[in-house]
Amino acid sequence: MKPILTPTLLAAIRKQPNLPRNTWYFITATTLSALNRPDELPEVFKNAILEGSDTTENGDPNRDHQLHISRRLTEALLKASAVGGMPKSINALMSLKSATPEDLRDEAGQGTSIRHKDIYDSAPTQVLERGQAFFEAIYGKISRRVMGQLDRSGAPDLGLLARLAYGYVLSNTDVLTQAETSFVLIASLIPQDAMCNADAKL
């Protein structure tokens, strides 16, 4: 399959003046995931690591900075699953893992899940209220109407699914801010030509 991400395109994305600093790589990764092109994620990871390669006194790459990039990419791909689908996110995350050195990975069982406290240490109502607040921030004054449409969609659990996704997945800001999460949602929806007909205030 012919690569989408040419060196010229990658350079143009990195130099976009309207993108907030340090967002190009997870926005690009999210878009590639939505296009079902996980094979291109190692190149995004490599360029993000090289571009932001702070060094230690010894001239070695700064591991903390690299770990920060790795976690932001992972979080973006995980959050993209809410609108792009789990299979695409799984493929993207597995591809990213194959390109990520072991010392820059957060493996299961090491207590590294940022959602551990949401599941085990927080009241579900607290997490769901945080999700509702984020949903309202995304949809603004039409948020009640949009949630009402989900609740009356003919599938009674669609509204529940949205509440769980916004509460437990999308509203967590330990790695990506609310604004950065909005970029992830947009970057995942646009290549699918799936912007919500509810005129989302993204």
From TrEMBL:
InterPro entries (alphabetical): AhpD-like, PTS1_Protein
SUPFAM superfamilies the UniProt entry points to: AhpD-like
Listed name of the protein: Uncharacterized protein
Species of provenance: Fusarium gaditjirri
